[in-house]
């Protein structure tokens, strides 16, 4: 049995919202940018074991029904890439926990559009992508089509991380915040390892709203 240690911090989460709302496609660009910012979908935080900055991306927080690829590209261009040193490599920690097609998965064409809009210098500086909690479907898809869909050698930079304990082989554990639901999912995998292979159903939790007072981040996944 692992012992979880650390402390939680407070941060806004996704609020319960009607993802099929007729207003979801009519948000202004500025509103979309503010939404991405509030949800903390992208955050530069911590360093890996090589001393590289980390861009943390939480897939569950992606409001796929509410924002366009244009808004995501502009957010990255204006608020993320300028904070990455143009001359230094960086790593990405992508957390795939609880991502599902109906709520927070934007689709392959949208992902490819976002990726292709990233400046060449940023792509070159990306040293590694640590893909946390990959499902069997995402692994099979990337193994089959990843080399063809994403340019710049992205597929070769992927490192699958099936448990949080293995992430700390690459990332300094005390410098990055991990949402509580990720730790809970990790615990479930310990007792239901068959979930790793997509055989047992893993029911996604309900999406929660912006400005929720609940604490969603935890530092307990550092054992």
From TrEMBL:
It comes from Cannabis sativa. InterPro entries: CRAL-TRIO_dom, CRAL-TRIO_dom_sf. Residues 35-187 form the CRAL-TRIO domain. Signal peptide: none annotated. This is CRAL-TRIO domain-containing protein.
């Amino acid at each position: 049995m692992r012992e979880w240690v650390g402390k939680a911090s407070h941060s806004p989460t996704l609020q319960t919202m009607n993802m099929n709302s007729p207003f979801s496609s009519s948000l202004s660009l500025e509103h979309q940018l503010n939404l991405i910012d509030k949800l903390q979908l992208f955050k530069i935080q911590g360093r890996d074991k090589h001393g590289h900055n980390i861009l943390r991306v939480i897939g569950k927080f992606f409001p796929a029904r509410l924002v366009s690829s244009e808004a995501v590209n502009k957010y990255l261009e204006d608020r993320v890439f300028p904070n990455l040193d143009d001359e230094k490599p960086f790593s990405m920690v992508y957390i795939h926990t609880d991502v599902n097609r109906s709520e927070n998965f934007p689709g392959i064409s949208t992902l490819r559009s976002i990726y292709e809009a990233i400046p060449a210098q940023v792509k070159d500086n990306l040293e590694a992508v640590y893909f946390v909690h990959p499902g069997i479907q995402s692994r099979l898809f990337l193994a089959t089509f990843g080399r063809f869909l994403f340019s710049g050698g992205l597929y070769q930079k992927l490192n699958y991380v099936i448990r949080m304990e293995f992430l700390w082989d690459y990332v300094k554990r005390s410098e990055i915040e991990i949402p509580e639901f990720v730790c809970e999912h990790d615990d479930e995998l310990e007792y239901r390892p068959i979930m790793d292979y997509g055989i047992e159903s893993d029911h996604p939790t309900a999406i929660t709203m912006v400005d929720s007072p609940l604490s969603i981040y935890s530092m307990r996944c550092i054992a």
